[in-house]
Records
---
Amino acid sequence: MPVLKQTTSYRVSLKERILETAMQAFIERGVKAVKMDDIATKLTISKRTLYEIYTDKEQLLFEGIKKYDKSKRLKLQQYAAQGHSVIDIILEAYRMKIKEIRMVNPTFYIDIMKYPRVEQFIRENNERMRHNSVEFMKRGVKEGFLRENVNYEMIPFMFDAIGQYVMNNSLLQRYSVEEMFSNYFLVSLRGLCTAEGIRVVDAAVL
């Protein structure tokens, strides 16, 4: 029995180390550039062991994306639970995204959309966010930071359209991810804000 527990514990630990090693390589080099052989070699394990735990690179990427998304949402929920206003929460999400962008090879964002399970997860995640965003933005209106005369049901679709345009027109090859995200996000956010909201945004990012 102790041997079985040790074996199970080792496999759980190894699974986590594989995931961390793979995701680090993906964000540094892009997904396409990383082979399963590279991951096995980095961890000094056999390819057979690697494939016994993760059947292919898409499963690795899918699990890594899910884990990162869960961690990101938890951090933002913990921040929101401290009693911050809607505009503060939006700006914290912006800071988290900028921090992520500075760590990630732009190729990673292009590569991940080529994997069906990952693309579907991201699409469904965006749909959930759209569903929850309207009430969140209405709260911002009540707090006096966001304008009342805006169709907040439309805004997430507009952001999605911008992201799709960026991908379809290879803009990541012309501009940095940080430059594009900062420009379209901050300009759009200021357009949604009241004078007080603009003051808070400008004080936070300028």
Note: Residues 1-6 have pLDDT under 50 and may be disordered.
---
Amino acid sequence: MKRILIMFYIALFSISVSAEDNKESKVLIVTNMGKITVKLYNETPLHRDNFIKLVQENKYDSIMFHRVKKQFMIQAGEKYAPSDSVNAHFVDKDLDYKVPAEIVYPKYFHERGQLCAARMGDDVNPERASSANQFYIVTGKHFTDHELDKMEKEKNIKLTPEQREAYKITGGAPHLDGAYTIFGEVVKGIHVVNKIELVITDNNDYPIKPVRIKTMKILKK
């Protein structure tokens, strides 16, 4: 009987550990316009672990959202922050490695609030490997059935019922689907993403008044 009880508690402990391991990591992004919390998908472990590593190394502290496009996305991840001066010349800077693509489609698609990895174009990056540090959060637009029907015909694709509903109700950027790695989503602070999306930008989509990431930190599971 005692042996049975011991085995029972070992089994319970193993189940508990397994459940803990399967929980999704969360990261708090503190900006000068508010806080955003994202969760990272376990189905994209290379991107998840790389993002966590960069957060722990404070690589994102004091950088800017350097590209903001209304009804599309907000992008950050520069290794070096540009000057606060709106006249400063902006130069893209990536880390010296890439993360292999982990495109989990159609389960994850470009619905509003999705956390995605930026990358170089297919002409120079046919394997669609991701930038190690640059990421974007989808804002997108709302679509009508007519617009979605037209997109399906032009791109020779078929949207799932979940995609179609999301793009009509929540909004997003379906033209990016299946081409970029989506490795997480906003779970808190989408109103902050909305505020950032609406800031005034210059001709290069750089905010006139800098939007800064003060710091990021891993939240306890």
Note: The helical segments are 2-22, 45-56, 145-155, 161-169, 190-197.
---
Amino acid sequence: MKRFLTIAIMTLTLATAATAQDADSKYATELLKPGTEAPDFTIENSTAKYNGTSLLSMRGQYVVLDFWASWCPDCRKDIGEMRSMYGDFASDSVAFVGISFDKDETAWRKCVNDSTMTWMQHSELKPWKETRISQDYHIKWIPSMYLIGPDGKVVLATVEIKKLRKALEAISTAKK
């Protein structure tokens, strides 16, 4: 019986470790690799303040790209942490852009307003797989996040918001 219990515990431990594997190794394998030039796009369907802003025009600063949708439970779960990072790191040298795959404009705007997502928001208001930006950035899973460097190249591509926070903390520390 003792032997059976030991084997059962070991099996459970291995199973737990396998499911707790790095989510990037499962869901972020096709995202653009660090050092890749980030494809340019122009903010659409946002507020007048941000409409027409291009990624290219943000050169010289870090840019967080957060790919999400109001209908995505994991995305909604991450909104609070993204809002916290925006409060902690947004500055003249770090910009945030939410990129929604909502096709229902009312649902998208309601989620942005209700969740106090005050950073730049963009949506093509088309189904996810039909958007140019999802093709350009190889988005196969949401939420997905990129950190673009001041030179316009990918610094980090991940589906794990904790990795994004660590990268922003490292940048913040390096600037001090």
Note: Strands lie at 62-68, 94-100, 120-123, 144-148, 154-158.
